Amino acid sequence: MESQEFDVVVVGSGAAGLATALGAIDEGLSVLVIESTERWAGSTGMSGGGLWLPNNPLMRRDGVGDSREEALEYLARTVGDGERSASPERRAAFVDGVDDYVTTAERYGVRFLRSKDYPDYYPELPGGKIGRALESRPFDAKRLGELARTQRVSMPLPMLTDDLWQLQRSWVTFDGFLRGVRFAFRVLGGLVRGKRLTGIGGSLTASLGHAVFVQGKVPLWLSSPARRLITEGDRVVGVEVEREGATVIVRARRGVMLASGGFDHHREWRLRYHGIAGNPAGNPGGLGQGHELAREVGAAFELMDDAWWGAAVKPIRGGSAGFMVGERALPYQLIVDAQGRRFANEAESYVDLGHHMLEHDRGGRFWQIGDARYARRYLRTFAVDPRVNKAMTAEGIRVTADTIEELAPRIGMDTAVLRETVDRFNGFARSGKDQDFHRGDSAYDRYYGDPTVRPNPCLGPLEKGPFTAYEMVVGDLGTKGGVVTDTHARALREDGTVIEGLYAAGNVSAAVMGRTYPGPGSTIGPASVFGLIAARTMARG
Predict the structure, then answer these.
(1) Residues 29-40: pLDDT tens digits?
(2) How far, in whole angstroms, is CA 230 from its chain's centroid?
């Protein structure tokens, strides 16, 4: 049986794994990254690529006020102290690790950009801010060489997260049109210069991957699942890996990092822990392998019943759910339950809306209904592919009618109930005040709204046919439960003792954000920071 040895072995190649590998390089440690699938970058490569990093160096360079105290106050207000993973000490470790992560990544060539207009998800709470999120500038994937062919990426275009909120209204506002022009020139400029620019999550993982695999020459083993953690006494000392049909023993002198993602696509676990099969938008390799490895060595778990929820358009047969972000805040549409009644603020944080859908009717049917202006005025990510639209119509996911009275029975609702809901909503839209669920009151809601619609950019009456309904399901960006870790990202047992040599970060670990989502990039930000913290801890012995 083949045997190899490194200082650090990283299981998984998303944000947490890449940050750990980068930290190991910075500390002069040898490191191996193993990935169970045929592609690297994990769910991070498929994501919007934002990192929520309060009190970060780019904010200070821009003269934007923030502080450790404000960040911790905001986290205390939003996250609270309900879980061990979200303890005050863990929250402080995250905030205190932001500077090191950003400055270290920059030294290795990652070029960050601040999403200056993107609010925290509860900006009106004490400590809330606008502009805490960072993202990577577009990256030329050609610099990765052959690695570019195996990178997991959802959108191979130089998109920025700050593009999305303006592009969706590019047909109705000047700033949206201008952003569309700038985006087009960015794409064309890259092509003219012979570059293959990628953005959002693809850019972040490409930048980190270039630093780790190209510059740092760290070996990456694809299609190499970890099958077992190797222990000596109470300490984890390596990993048994299946590679090219053989078993390889990889010893880790300093530690093993589990950064293998969640159990998004593990149907049995989803039914057991969540009560629904799930409609995941993340990496199909998220099957809970890291959870199983940690369980075998006695790790404690938490938040297994939760996920990074959100509303999504029901998938067509053989397709994936269309996770909705900004489309929910735009005017001229609402979301109702199977009876035709509203139940939440459609524009609220996607995690909050997902929780509200589950609490209101777990496993039930929901519909988004919009009038002709919603379809005509706005770019909606779930409706851009005509082939998918045709399939949705054929499968009854997309239903159109000239009037609300005609639409209601087609989607199984009592006409009087839906008519009453729409009339009440229309009254709120005309007054500018949603008296039921306060849609448009928060700066977060308004970020995705249409500023040309007054008096409330998130409210517009449903008056003009045809009306189109899309069936909604509870989707997610990944599962939230996993290994309980301490302030150094070390795995803990149920009694609170440390499993020496074992670390966890990202969605394989229980979230420091608890059951909420304080701001854009609240998954990738902590995953990255705790990945680097783990590497620093391993270097100290």
Answers:
(1) 999 999 999 999
(2) 31
Strands 366-370 and 333-337: antiparallel
Contact 66, 95 (CB under 8 A): no
Q: What are the φ and ψ backbone dihedral angles of 110, each rounded to 5 degrees?
A: -75, 125
Is 481 strand, coil or helix? Answer: coil
Give 354-369 pLDDT, tens digit per residue. 999 999 998 889 999 9
Nearest to 417 by CA among 475, 477, 342: 342
Q: Which residue in this structure is represented by tokens 């100290």? A: 540
Contact 46, 154 (CB under 8 A): yes
Strand 246-258 versus strand 2-11 pairing type: parallel
Which residue has 């938040």 as its token pair? 303
If you compute the radius of gyration of the chain from its CA atoms, what whole number of angstroms results?
23
Phi, psi dihedral angles at 514 (to 5 degrees) = 60, -130
Task: Tell me 138's DSSP state.
Answer: P
Helices (H), 235-342: 267-274, 289-296
Measured between alpha carbons, how far is 506 from 31 in angstroms, rounded to an integer?
A: 18
Residues 6+ apart with CB under 8 A from 166: 173, 175, 176, 179, 180
Q: What own/partner pairs with CB < 8 Å and gap ≥ 24 does 493-501 have?
A: 493/298, 493/299, 493/300, 494/298, 494/300, 499/234, 499/235, 499/236, 499/297, 499/298, 499/299, 500/234, 500/235, 500/236, 501/235, 501/236, 501/237, 501/252, 501/254, 501/255, 501/256
CA atoms 134, 140, 143, 148: torsion sign: positive
Residue 491 and residue 172: Cα distance in Å, rounded? Answer: 50
Angle formed by the axes of helices 524-539 and 88-107, nearest 10°: 80
Contact present, 164 and 323 (Cβ < 8 Å): no
Sign of dihedral through CA atoms 75, 344, 201, 255? positive
Q: What is the pLDDT of residue 343?
A: 98
How many Å apart are CA 527 and CA 480, to the nearest integer?
12
Q: Are 355 and 121 in contact (CB under 8 A)?
A: no
Strand 498-504 to 246-258 pairing: parallel
| Whole-number Å distance between alpha carbons of 132 and 64 | 9
Residue 171 has pLDDT above 90, yes or no: no
Burial of 243 (0-12, 13-18, 19+ CB in 10 A): middle
Of 524, 462, 427, residue with least CA distance to 201: 524
Widest CA span in the chain: 73
Token reading at 26:
């910075």
Q: φ, ψ for residue 510 (rounded to 5)?
A: -70, 135
Q: Name the token pair of 332.
A: 């001229």
Confidence class for position 487, pLDDT limits 50, 70, 90: very high
